[in-house]
Amino acid sequence: MLKTITRMLIIPCMAGMLSGCWDNKDINHRSLPITMGVSMVGETYKVILLIPEPVERTTKVRIVYGIGKTITEAVDHISRDMESDIDMLHMKVVVFDKPSAEKGMTDSISGFMRARDISPKAVVVICDEDIDHFFKRTKQTMEPSGTTLYNYFEKNAGWSPEVALTRIWQVYRSIYSFTRDVAIPVVKSGNDTMMQHLGSAIIKNGRMVGQISSEETLLFNAFNGESAHGKIEVMQHSSVLIVSNTMSHESKVVNNQMYMTSRINLNVSILETSSHVTNDSIKKELDSTLTDRCNALLAKIQSSEADILGLGQFFRNKIPRAELKNWRTEYLPRLKMDFSVRTVIQNEGNLKTPRRK
Amino acid sequence: MVPFLQEMKSRLGSNDDFFIQRVFLLDKPVVIMGLSTLIDVVNTKSALLEYIEQSFPSGKTVEEVIKAMSTTPHIEINEAISAITKGKLIIYFEVTKQRVIVDPIMKLLNRSIESPTNENVFQGSMSSFTEDIDTNIGIARKEFNSRRLVVKSYYTGSLQKKRLSLLYDEERVDRKLVNQVIDRIENNQDKEINHIQNLTKVMGFNSMELIPKFNTTELPQEAANSIRKGRVVLFIDRIPFALVLPSLLWDMFALENDKNLPKPIMISLRLLRVVGVLATLIMPGLYVALVSVNPEVLRIELALSIAQSRDGVPYPALIEIIMMLVVLELVIEASIRLPRSIGPTITMVGGIILGQAVVAAQLVSNLLIIILAATTIANSTVVGVQNSLSIRLFKYLIVVLASIYGVLGILGGMVLVSAYLAGLTTFGVSYLYINPAERRRDS
C-alpha cells in the first residue's frame, strides 16, 4: 500500500519535472507580434515588430526595432530589452521591403521554416516604400483594434480577390520547385486607407524579378483556385459580378514544342449596364478583355522566366525529369498558350423585368 | 413471576419504552409486550380483541386461538427479543406459558411518498422511493407489474438485522449476475449494511473506485426500466433509493423519462448531456492550456482580449483556476449543507464573490469566471448527482495535465479518463455497455 502511494506521488512529480512546465508563460506575459518587417541594411538585418498591446479597454500598437546579423539575433535583441517574452507564433504577416526582396529572401524564408517559431501560414508581403515609414503609417491606422493589417489578408475579413495570398510555406516551396513560382502582394501605406495595393511581385527562387498589376493578380488567383468570386469586372459600359469560375487545362508536347489550351468558364451576373448593350456584346467584350489580359500576363511571365501560374505542373509528366530543372529558362518562354473564355450570364441581376435584347 | 417474563424484563427493562401489560383474552389472562415507540398500543389492543371476537366464535378455547395465531410452536427468548426490536408484539399466555409473535398496528414512522428531492423530473411521474423498503418494493411492483418480477429478501448484519431486497425480471435478467449477487449476500450475511460503502464491500467491489458501481435512482420509473432491461435492483431498508446493478456509462446521459418526449427531442437532449459532460471535463483544462501553454491556438483577437483580461492577475493560470474551482466546490457543498432558509444567502454571497469582487480585485481574469460558470452549469446536465460528482473530480486531472502539456495534455487526460471508464466492470459487465441484455441475446 505504502509502495503504491509512493509511486502515485512520484509519478506526478516526474510529470512536472520532466515536462518542463515551468517554461510556460501565461498569455499576459507574452508579447504577440502580429506583423514583422524585415529589411536588409548592408549585411545586417533590421527587424521591426508590430505588437498590439491591450491597455485599458483598447489596444495600443507598439513598434519595436532590432538589428542583428540574423533575423533571430535581431528578435533576440528585442526580446532581451522587452519586459515580456516575444511569442512569434501569432505572426500573421511578414513584410519585406522591396530592395531586400529583390536581393533575395531565400535565407530568411528557410530560416522561418527551420526555426518553426513563425507559423508557416503567415502571409508574405512586399512593401514598396521605406519600411520605417510604412510601419509608422500602419501604426497610426491600426491603433484601435490592433489587427487591421492582418485583417487585410484575412479571407473572412478584408481580403479581395485582386490581392495575392501567398504564405511562407508557398514561398519556401517555390524556392525548391522547378515548375512553380509565386506572386507576393506589393503594397504601400495609403492616404485614407491603411494600405494601397500596387499589384504583385513575381518571385523566382526567392527573388523578386518583376511585377504584375492588380487585374493580372486576379487571374493569378483564379488560376490557383483562389476563386475570383465576387469580383466586379469593369468594362467600357457595364460591370459584372463573377459568381463562380472554373478552369480546365490541356497540355501537350509536339515536336519538343509545348502547347497548352486553357478554358475559363465564367458564371457572371450583370451589375451595371447601359440600356443599349446586349448580353451578346457583354459576353464578347468579356471574352476579349480576359483573353488580352491572360496573354499579357503570359508574356510577362515568359519574359521574367518565373512560372507564377504553375504552368509547369501540367508538363511534369511530359518532360523528362532531368530536363525539368530547365523548365523556367528553356521551356516556359517557348510555351504556346491558347486561352478561351466561356461566359454564362447566369441572371441579369435582381431585376424582374426582362432586358431588351 | 414466570421465568420468561422475568428474563424479558431483565433483558429489555432498562428501556423506558418497553411495556408489559396484562390483559384478558377470552377471559384468560395474557401478557402483551413490545416497544411503545414502535407500536400503537391502544389501537393494537382493541384490534386484537376485535379480531379474536370476530374470528373465533364463542366456545373456542385459548389453546385453539394460540394454534391459529402462532406460526412456530415454541419461541426462544432471543427470537422474542429480536422480534420486539423489529416492532412486533409478543403475547404470552400465562396459563399455558406459550408465546406468540403478532403483527401489531405500527406507529407511522415513515414519510409518505413524495416527489423526488435529489432528481428532478420533467414531465414524468413524480413519486419517489422512501425509506421504507416495503413501500419501495410496492412502488416498484406497481411500475413493473408483471408475474416475471421476482423479489428476494435477505437479512444481514449481526448487530442489527437489515433487510435487503433484490428485484429482477425472471426472464430478461442475466442469471449469472443474479447468482453472483445472491452468493455475495449470502456469504456476507454477518456484515452490517448501513450505507453504500458497506454494500460495496459486501459485493466485493474495490472501495477506491471513483465511479459508483451502483447506479442510484430515486425514481421508480427508472428503477422499473432497469429491471425491464434485465438489470438487478437492490433495495436496502432505510435507504430511500434503488441501487441498480450493474451501473453503466449510459445512465449518465439517458433517463427513461426522456422517452415521454418526441424522439428527435430526446436525442438532442441526450446529446446535450454528452456535450455537458465533455464541456465539464474540457473547458477548465482548455482555459489553462490556451492561456499558459498554447496561446497560438487562439485567434489573435481572442488572444489579445484574454491577455487584456488577465492583465494584472498575479497567479499563473493553474493556481488561478484551481483556486476558483475550489471556491466553487465550497459554494456547492455549502448550499447542500445549509438549511433551505439560509441557502439563498450563500447563492447571493457566492454570486457576488465570484461574479464581481474577484474580478474587480484583479485576482482572476473575468474570462475564467465565464469558464467556471459554464463548467458548473454543464456539470449539472448529467443524470444523477452521484455521476456528476465523479465527473467533477476528473476535471482536475485534466486541468493539471493541461497545465503541463497544454492541448496535448487535455487529449492525454481524456484518453486516461476513457481508459479508466473502459476498464471498469461490474460482475463481468463492462461499464461501457449500452444495453447488456441485448448483447446476451445476440451471443
In helices, the fraction of residues of chain B equals 40-55%
Total number of beta strands of chain A? 14
Strand count, sense and barrel status of the largest sheet of chain B are: 5 strands, antiparallel
Shape of chain B: elongated
What gap, in angstroms, lies between the N and C termini of chain A? 93 Å
Low-confidence stretches of chain B: none
Dominant shape of chain A: globular
Q: How many structural domains of chain A?
A: 2
Q: First CA to last CA of chain B: what distance?
A: 69 Å
Indicate the structural class of chain B: alpha+beta
Any idea how many domains of chain B?
A: 3
| Main sheet: strand order of chain A | 4-3-2-6-7-8-9-10
What is the alpha-carbon Rg of chain A in Å? Answer: 25 Å
Number of DSSP helices of chain A? 11
What oligomeric state best describes the polypeptide chains here? heterodimer
Strand content of chain B: 5-15%
The percent of residues in helical segments of chain A reads 25-40%
The counted number of beta strands of chain B is 11
Helices and strands of chain B, in N-to-C order?
HEEHHHEEHEEHHEHEEHHHHHHHEEH
Report on the structure:
The complex is a heterodimer of chains A (357) and B (443). Chain A has an 8-stranded mixed sheet with strand order 4-3-2-6-7-8-9-10. Helices cover 32% and strands 33% of the residues of chain A. Chain A folds into 2 domains: 29-212, no CATH class; 214-348, GMP Synthetase, Chain A, domain 3 (2-Layer Sandwich). In chain A, strand 11 and strand 12 (238-254) form a beta hairpin. Chain A starts with a helix and ends in a 10-residue tail after the last strand. Chain A has helices at residues 2-19, 71-81, 98-103, 106-115, 131-142, 148-151, 168-176, 214-223, 279-304, 321-324, 327-331, and strands spanning 30-31, 35-41, 44-55, 58-68, 85-86, 93-97, 123-127, 182-189, 195-204, 207-212, 232-234, 238-254, 257-273, 336-347. By secondary structure, chain A is of the alpha/beta class. Chain A is built from 11 helices and 14 strands. The longest helix of chain B has 31 residues, at 263-293. In chain B, helix 11 (317-337) packs antiparallel against helix 14 (385-405). In chain B, a hairpin with a 2-residue loop joins strand 10 (425-426) and strand 11 (429-430). Chain B folds into 3 domains: 3-102, no CATH class; 133-246, no CATH class; 260-426, no CATH class. Chain B has a 5-stranded antiparallel sheet, with helices on both faces. Chain B is α+β, with helices and mostly antiparallel strands and 443 residues long. Chains A and B meet through helix 1 of A and helix 9, helix 10 and helix 14 of B. Chain B: This is Spore gernimation protein GerA. Chain B: The chain crosses the membrane at residues 271-293, 313-332, 344-361, 393-411, 417-434.
